[in-house]
Write a structure and sequence with these properties.
Catalyzes the dehydration of chorismate into 3-[(1-carboxyvinyl)oxy]benzoate, a step in the biosynthesis of menaquinone (MK, vitamin K2). Belongs to the MqnA/MqnD family. MqnA subfamily. It comes from Helicobacter canis. It is an enzyme of class 4 (lyase). One of its GO terms (biological process) is menaquinone biosynthetic process. By secondary structure, the protein is of the alpha+beta class. The protein has one domain: D-Maltodextrin-Binding Protein, domain 2 (3-Layer(aba) Sandwich). It is built from 15 helices and nine strands. The strands form two sheets. Strands 2-1-3-8-4-9 form a six-stranded mixed beta sheet. It has a three-stranded antiparallel beta sheet with strand order 6-5-7, with helices on both faces. The two termini are 22 Å apart.
Length: 314
Amino acid sequence: MRFGKIQYLNLLPFDVFVKSYPTTTRFKSAAFANRSYPSKLNQSFLFHRIDAGFISTIAGATAHRKHKATQAGIIAKGAVWSVLSLESNGDSALLKKHRLSPSDSLVLGSHSLESTFSKVDSRVDCHAAAHAAARNDNKTAQSKNADSSPQAQSPRKDYQSDTSNALSTVLNLHGRVLIGDRALQYRFNGGKAIDMGQVWWEKHRLPFVFGRLCYNSYGEFYNNIARAFVKKRVKIPHYILQARAKACGIPPHYIREYLAHIHYHIHAKERVGLERFYRALRLKAIKPPSRIYPRNVDSSKCTPNTPYKGSSNV
């Protein structure tokens, strides 16, 4: 069984749960083998490289329609802390601390934004990041040529995200999108940003589902895991919390406060929030992620019944 999981702190309770869940060692090994950021797991799920996993809500639209999504998800009722929209001057905010008013509710840290992100991004697949950035070059160039005004330009996307990028457009936010442990560390250091979960709550008064456990196969098995997970109150051991805190550069008490803002059981209101989000995507003409194939394929050199041996990065 091939399982994919988002490598963020928001699924730390699921990591602890899987270790104690009565299942095969093979599955437990697989659960900790395929770990990456959401947009990459979305592609693995769409290509059926994994049988199931926590994927972005927007990528799970088809699974939701085909009833291949479980009742477990990553949900926030209000502020989520780890899905942010940086202000237009967010990149330079940390370098211009002296220009801010003393009355600001969030005091910016002393480190630069780049040094803040580098600690958490050191393990990210650089080749996948470069490929994802290259895919957006044409769209960025076209948007700049169409209208050079800052208000008309689309918000700067986070290559690790699909749902949050779409949510930023739905909420009409124009700042840089930042998600995951990098966003949490940015907030901990005093970075100034808009919490998308809070904006969604103030607008719709509904929880927002950022990710969902979906499956391509072994539906009964993963539905049982999801039901057991959402019913159990997971306590994170101190040594695991200390290890993750050291790896992320975030104090353990701050991680606990962060996890208190997240729950995992999709009830009726969460399902209404899902339908509201999917409806907003249709109204904004935002398409869900699809399979992305390598673009360096020379069709003239490919013969029938011969597998392509080029780059596998997507």
